[in-house]
Amino acid sequence: METFEDYLATIDHPEHRAQIEEVLTWVKKKFPNLEQKIAWKQPMFTDHGTFIIGFSVAKQHFAVSPERAGMIHFEDDIVQAGHSHTKELVRFKWDSPVDYSLLEKMIEFNIMDKADCTTFWRK
Predict the structure, then answer these.
(1) CA dihedral angle for residue 105, residue 111, residue 117, residue 120, rounded to 10 degrees
(2) Which of 7, 16, 22, 65 measures 20 to 30 Å from 99, CA to CA?
């Protein structure tokens, strides 16, 4: 897999594929300076070579990973919105509206927080 189109073609469920495509397109339009990357067989966005946000697909949801620092920073928002989560990711159920507000805040936080980061992951 080299492109988001290649990734999307691997999603068997048409509605899930359409929703992820919509989310990825939204990120591209909202944050045009971010670079698209496929790594670990997942779509992600980077800024000056550092990870900003990644996505993965599961049967019941798609997941968003803003790294642990992003999870800690937005833990109250995640809980208040009722999203299921782990230490590293937030789960967005397929049958619920996409929480673009939270997604936007996570991306903005990582762009600002990692502005001077010179590594892919935070140290």
Answers:
(1) 80
(2) 7
